[in-house]
């Protein structure tokens, strides 16, 4: 039987009823795949339904930064504030799926509004159906992270079109304490983990405000102009996407410095995501095919029937190439 070391009750979150958030222990029996998927599901819920504060460190390649996070769930809404503690001042405030980013640039604080993203520790989706189709999960050992005991789970892809992951899940709270991403050579390409974390005992929101340099002027960044899909003067379709990837969003927008609208689509397998852009080629010069990667991000650009098709995402190079080549431009 699965034992429960602590139980948290939560109210409906984003339209999903959270009945019981309990922590799973597998002492004394071999865990089934279903039980391991349940553990990951509970980690996804815990990151959204618990109130906590702490500091985590994100390392990619030779770059590392510490981030202070405060997260509150009041039974209906999520509030979060992330403060980058290293380098240029930066704060991210989110309420639900709405993000507001405060960046220090020269003598100003530039404010940007963006759509919600799955940020650590809420990087796991609430729905695991697509992930189960494309990954396998394995149980590993226990380790201590941020002075807390954690169960380690491996998430491995069924093909070479996505990365593998290693997750440390808190034994008591079910919260994701650490995540490591690996490339196909089993090399670490990203590591994010708490070095301090604790539950909040108050529901006060006095911390939910930007505290970045108040002596500087706050200015709004230019928001992209969103257009109807029909404004893109090209017919296109998507054929033969890589296994498991589905389109999750699509917009047409004007981009500063570009005279024509740009089609922007987002594809995801439930965990990894790829952005695809379609726009007319630059008639003043030749557009070359390009393929590159940096850390866990891959980039591909090619010409298709007079249009520049660009794919960029936190996936292997083969994935962005396949997604870009799945575009069929009408003549």
TrEMBL record:
- Output the InterPro entries linked to this UniProt entry: MucB/RseB_C (IPR033436), MucB/RseB_C_sf (IPR038484), MucB/RseB_N (IPR033434), MucB_RseB (IPR005588)
Q: Which GO terms describe its molecular function?
A: antisigma factor binding
Q: Where in the cell is it found?
A: Periplasm
The text of the family note is: Belongs to the RseB family.
Instruction: Classify the source by domain of life.
Output: Bacteria
Q: Which UniProt keywords apply?
A: Periplasm, Signal
GO-annotated cellular components: outer membrane-bounded periplasmic space
According to the entry, every stretch annotated as the MucB/RseB N-terminal domain falls at: 39-211
- Main site of residence? periplasm
Q: Which residues form the signal peptide?
A: 1-30
Pfam families xref list: MucB_RseB, MucB_RseB_C
Name of this chain's protein:
Transcriptional regulator
Which Gene3D superfamilies would you find in this protein's record? Answer: Lipoprotein localisation LolA/LolB/LppX, MucB/RseB, C-terminal domain
